[in-house]
Amino acid sequence: MDTDLPPYFENVLDSYERGTHNRCVHLGYYAPNTLSSNWTLQEAQEEFDDRLLSEAALSPAQKVLDVGCGLGGLVDRINSKYNRMNIVGLSNDPRQLEICNSIRPKNHNSVAWVEADACFLPFPSASFDRVFCIEAAFHFGSRRRFYTEAQRVLKPGGLLICTDIILRESSFQFPNNARCDSGPQANDIEAFTKRSIHSLLLSAFAPWPDPWYSMASMQNEIIEVGLTAPQIQDWTLQTSPSYQGMVSQSKPQGHHGTRDPMLAALSTLQFLHLNQLLQYVYFTCVKNY
Ligand SMILES: C[S@@+](CC[C@H](N)C(=O)[O-])C[C@H]1O[C@@H](n2cnc3c(N)ncnc32)[C@H](O)[C@@H]1O
User: Fold this and answer.
1) How many domains does the chain have?
2) Checking DSSP bridges between strand 110-115 and strand 128-134, what pairing results, if any?
């Protein structure tokens, strides 16, 4: 398969092999009263998964697909907590799927792994009760194409459960009076800033083809493909403490720049997140009958 795999996954796979990374490759959820507590990233990731699963209201014998399943963290959790489920994890990276393969079915569940692109799901129409897509859609060639495919493979009444990262484009729009007669125009500064942020993110998190995708596009496209209007929760604040552990795992960055592309990208994402220049969104929507 012709794939474009995110460079940061080299580090994730390496850390997993060394035993310093768990199966979750997503941020943690720090409930408001725990924001300043000593929760580890792993505890916050477990809270994150529990919230997804309580909303998903899974019941025995359902068929569940996790698109962009990473190292199988969510599949592992469903396999441990529920019984008689048919669970499928899908990723575009065979190395990740090899790690997933060590998850053995429990509780009379079946577990399968599929290598494919999220925009071309190799399943018949109306075959799943639930489709999860956790912190992966920003990598996809086209979110719209993924929503179309998710809608197609869901059974009528089935649920799509996603988290995604959406940059707030309006925060990068400079007022016209910021223009200075002899200097660059406001729209040039805006274009330069947006290009620079995109480049920094790409250095570790590529592919990220459409960083200026908006909440409005997301809502419109989901409805246009035949899903119900998404029920959206903003998890920006609750997920923002997650970087503490990650950044301290790599070298701390001072006031100067860095030649380490991973650190540059992670620091950029952290800055955007802590300053709410991006939104971390959680949403669910249902396939219309
Ligand atoms: C941040 S990780 C999230 C992994 C997992 N959902 C989790 O929460 O632990 C993003 C995942 O999306 C996968 N991915 C990226 N682009 C993809 C595509 N076009 N099709 C399928 N998976 C893709 C990556 O390989 C990676 O596993």
Assistant:
1) 1
2) unpaired
Q: Which helix (H) or strand (E) holds 73?
A: helix 73-81
Q: Is the pLDDT of residue 283 over 60?
A: yes
Q: Contact 185/173 with Cβ under 8 angstroms? A: no
Q: Is 267 domain-assigned? A: no
Measure the CA–CA gap between 70 and 49, rounded to whole angstroms: 14
For the chain, how big is the Rg over CA atoms in Å? 19
**How many secondary structure helices (H) and strands (E) does the chain include?**
10, 7
Q: What is the domain range of residue 251?
A: 8-169+209-255+278-286
Residue 224 lies in a domain: yes
DSSP letter at 255? S
pLDDT at 253 over 90: no
Token pair for residue 205?
Answer: 């998190």
Pocket of ligand 1 (CB under 6 A): 24-26, 68-70, 73, 91-93, 96, 117-118, 134-136, 139-140
Q: Which two tokens stand for residue 207?
A: 């592919």
Look at strands 231-234 and 278-286 and give their pairing.
antiparallel
Give me the CATH number covering residue 75: 3.40.50.150
Ligand 1 probe mutation, 3, 90, 139, 164, most atoms within 8 A of CB:
139
In a domain, 191, yes or no: no
| Closest residue to atom 24 of ligand 1, CA basis | 68
CA 123 distance to own-chain centroid: 22
CA atoms of 17 and 15, how far apart (whole Å) = 5
How confident is residue 130, by pLDDT bands cut at 50, 70 and 90?
A: very high
Which pTM does this prediction carry? Answer: 0.93
